[in-house]
Every structure is written in structure tokens, then in C-alpha cells.
User: Which sequence fits this backbone?
């Protein structure tokens, strides 16, 4: 084989897709356990500890901090009766869980999870096949990557609204309506907060945004988005949690008011898809926040060439060191942001519906507009008033 043709490109893309799927599904499964254990720690109780595996012919039970609860949940979803309401729209009822689940995975396609990899150098045995081809560790390196994120994330709400309508249940319908109004309210805030970043970095390509964060501000501070736009980072994370319909913004499924909101009439794996998508979206929100505001896959002062420290020291990194380091760095940032989101979920009480809308339209929207105006003036002054 030679380094020509599209087959090497196809293989690398499939590897990236496989990595992304394993990563997201692993985060989704692990977060169901993390949420139980973290909430238990916060409430000073033991938490998940009942599901276990007994070693055959012994009384030894493997509990492993309750890690088997995730497996028990999965088995329960697979084996449970697939209940359907007597009166429902069959097509809409069937499609809704997939319309909620699929866009969450698609958003990650444009998020870079590592720098550039040259397979022929990383694995010398494959050098004759890959040649000198280089690939950014990203499934789809699109110039309009940030716009694609908003396009796909907006699709998820269609599934929630469709589930509410197709279930032919008043609680489901109210949950779907709440989900729609909540998405419109907070999607606008998210869009305005990232406009400041677009002005700073001059691009909507997420790979370019990460690479520009590898520089420094004044030779001292890392040029991360959170340094340029700290207020926008706070507003973005708030709006992103609201879009994921997590407490304190879980009004579309508020169980004390609407039973389970738009997925009240769902059971078995269809219900599992709704719940699993929520946990995967926690990881996607973490990945997006790390990409936009925390330097993405790089540590401070780190580029694809190595470290360039403020006092002038240069530390070169081989590809065999740099690629795993970038992957671990990215995963570490995502995991930290997931824990923060779960901490918020178990710290704050749920808003009332009017409070939730008021927070968006009366507080976050004006603040995001003010942040954008200040950024525009600052950029104008930095450009010499031209």
C-alpha cells in the first residue's frame, strides 16, 4: 500500500469517531454513578452501594463503590416493559427519543479533542501507508464549527417538544412547551456570549480558537478565553446548564409539578435515551466550555511543538508524549467541568417557571448584551480606534 488514496483518511476518521463514541458513552455511564456518589457525599450519606456481583459459589460480594449501579440501570432499561399510551401519535412518539439523543452526539463532531497527529511518525510501522499525512484530532474540522454546534444543539429541543405533543398527555405537553420556551430564552444568551469570543479570536473554527489560546497575554497569562471573557464564561455555563434542563432549570420535567414532563409516557430504553442524553450532554457542555474558555486540549503555555514558558524556556515534546498528554488534558478538563455541573445541580433549588424566564430575559440577556458592547469598545480601542 502507499500513502495515496482516501483509505488512510477514512481509517483515521473512523478511529476518531470510535474514540468520540467511547468517550461520550463512557462519560454518560460514569456520570450516573458520579452523580449518585457526589450527591451522597454532599448529603453526608453512603450513596449507591446496593448493586453488587457475587463471586460464584462464595459469599464474596463485589460492590466497588456502587459502580455496578450503572450496569443495573442499563439492564433494567433493556428488560423493562415498553409501555405505550393508548392514544398517541405513533411516528412522533417513536422518533422523539432519537431526536433528543442524536444531536447531542453530533455536537461533539466539531470539537477538537487533541492537536495534530502524524500517524506515520507516531507509528513508524505505518509510515509507508500514511506517508506524511497530518490530521487534527477532530472528527470534522469545519470553518463554521461554532455555528454547527448551535445548529445541532437546537435540534434536540425538537425531540423534547415532539415527545410532549405525541404522548397525548397534558403533563407531557406542558413539559414540551416549557422545554421550547426555555431553549429559545437561553440559546439567545449563549449566542451573545460567544460573539465576544468570535470578536477576540476572529474565527468560528473551533480548532483555530484552541490554537490561538496557546499563546500568551503580555507574555505571562495564557490567552485562554476565560481570561479575555470571564463574564461571558459565567453566562455561557449558566445558559448551557439551562439548555440541558438540569436543576435549577429542570422545569420541563419538574417531577413535583409535571410527573416527569415531556417523557412522562415513556418507559424502558426510550426513557433511557432521554436520561442518557442528559448525562452525555453534561460531558458535551464540559467539552465545549473547555474548548472555548480553557484552552481546549492544551495546558497553559503549551502548543503542538511543546511548552513555551513565560521566562523564555522552551521544552520540546515528541509526538509520542504530546498526543497522549493532550488527550489526557482534554479529558481532565471535561471531567472537572462535569463535576462542577453536578455540584451546581445538588446545591441550588429549582427556580419557579416565571423566575427561570425572568432570569434569562431580565438579567442574563441584558448582561450578555453589555458584555458584548464592552468587548466591541475594547476591540475598537485596541485596534487604535479604527
Assistant:
Amino acid at each position: 500500500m502507499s500513502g495515496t488514496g482516501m483509505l488512510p483518511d477514512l481509517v483515521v476518521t473512523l478511529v476518531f469517531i470510535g474514540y468520540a463514541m467511547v468517550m461520550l458513552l463512557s462519560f454518560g455511564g460514569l456520570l450516573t454513578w458520579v452523580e449518585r456518589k457526589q450527591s451522597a457525599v454532599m448529603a453526608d450519606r453512603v450513596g449507591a452501594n446496593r448493586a453488587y456481583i457475587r463471586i460464584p459459589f462464595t459469599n464474596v460480594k463485589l460492590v466497588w463503590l456502587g459502580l455496578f449501579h450503572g450496569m443495573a440501570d442499563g439492564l433494567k432499561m433493556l428488560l423493562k416493559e415498553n409501555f405505550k399510551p393508548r392514544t398517541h401519535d405513533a411516528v412522533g412518539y417513536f422518533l422523539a427519543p432519537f431526536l433528543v439523543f442524536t444531536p447531542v452526539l453530533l455536537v461533539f463532531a466539531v470539537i477538537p479533542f487533541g492537536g495534530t497527529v502524524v500517524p506515520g511518525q507516531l507509528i513508524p510501522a505505518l509510515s509507508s501507508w500514511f506517508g506524511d499525512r497530518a490530521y487534527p484530532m477532530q472528527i470534522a474540522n469545519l470553518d463554521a464549527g461554532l455555528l454547527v454546534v448551535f445548529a445541532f444543539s437546537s435540534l434536540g429541543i425538537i425531540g423534547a417538544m415532539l415527545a410532549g405533543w405525541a404522548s397525548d398527555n397534558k403533563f407531557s405537553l406542558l413539559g414540551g412547551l416549557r422545554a421550547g420556551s426555555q431553549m429559545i430564552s437561553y440559546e439567545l444568551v449563549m449566542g451573545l456570549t460567544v460573539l465576544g469570543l468570535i470578536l477576540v479570536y476572529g474565527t468560528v473554527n473551533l480548532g483555530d480558537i484552541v490554537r490561538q489560546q496557546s499563546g500568551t497575554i503580555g507574555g505571562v497569562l495564557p490567552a485562554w478565553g476565560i481570561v479575555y471573557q470571564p463574564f461571558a464564561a459565567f453566562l455561557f455555563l449558566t445558559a448551557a446548564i439551562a439548555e440541558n434542563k438540569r436543576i435549577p432549570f429542570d422545569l420541563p420535567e419538574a417531577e413535583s409539578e409535571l410527573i416527569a414532563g415531556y417523557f412522562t409516557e415513556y418507559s424502558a430504553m426510550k426513557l433511557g435515551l432521554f436520561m442518557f442524553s442528559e448525562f452525555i450532554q453534561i460531558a458535551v457542555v464540559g467539552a465545549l466550555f473547555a474548548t472555548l474558555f480553557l484552552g481546549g486540549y492544551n495546558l497553559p503555555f503549551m502548543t503542538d511543538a511543546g511548552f513555551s514558558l513565560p521566562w523564555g524556556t522552551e521544552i520540546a515534546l515528541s509526538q509520542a508524549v504530546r498526543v497522549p498528554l493532550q488527550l489526557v488534558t482534554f479529558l481532565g478538563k471535561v471531567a472537572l467541568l462535569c463535576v462542577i455541573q453536578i455540584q451546581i445541580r445538588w446545591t441550588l433549588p429549582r427556580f419557579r417557571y416565571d423566575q427561570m424566564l425572568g432570569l434569562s430575559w431580565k438579567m442574563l440577556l441584558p448582561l450578555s448584551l453589555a458584555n458584548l458592547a464592552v468587548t466591541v469598545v475594547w476591540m475598537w480601542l485596541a485596534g487604535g480606534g479604527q
Summary: The mean pLDDT is 85. DSSP finds 14 helices and eight strands in the chain. The first strand starts at residue 53 and ends at 54. The beta strands are 53-54, 61-62, 116-117, 135-136, 216-217, 221-222, 306-308, 314-316.
